[in-house]
Amino acid sequence: HTSMPPDNGPALAAANDDYSAAGLTTSLLRFDAVAGTTYYIATDGKAGAQGNLVLRAFPELANDRFTTRTPIAGAPLAIDLPDVSYATRETGEPNHGGFGGRFSLWYAWTAPATGAYQFDTAGSNAVVSLALYTGADLASLVPAGAAYLNGGFGTSRVILQATAGTTYVVAIDSPDAQFGPAKLNIKSIVLAPNDA
36, 38, 44, 156: most buried by Cβ count inside 10 Å? Predict the structure, then answer.
């Protein structure tokens, strides 16, 4: 059974041809749906291409956008991350640590005290990168550290010299599109005198 839109034609809610923000040739639509509204989805083969189609619909993750980053505080801290396969990349988003990536989530961590802190992804099934910044918007982000697969056993680890009361932006991304449950762990550490 196929439902057809009314004869007067539907209003366009969203359209996309290549998810260019992530460098992909697949398409991605993001729009604010209204409960009870029926939406009609049209697809077409680019340049006459034919084949199977995979269509996924999912709610936007709460911290998928920089402006809706999730505030977190304290240490030690262990957070179960949502599956980043449902995350997207924003226009103007930095290339986190130079590692690439297409599926980012955002957090804002406020340092409880001045000192050294370790951010890592130990306990993750997914392979994700970490990037830390200061700054209030995408255009003004200043890198504070980044890592990908440097923590052993497929994990990533960043050491941050934090200042009490400063909020650091944490970006979690998946450069190699390896998805699944992931974790973010934060703890204070004591560095050896010659490790500064």
Answer: 156
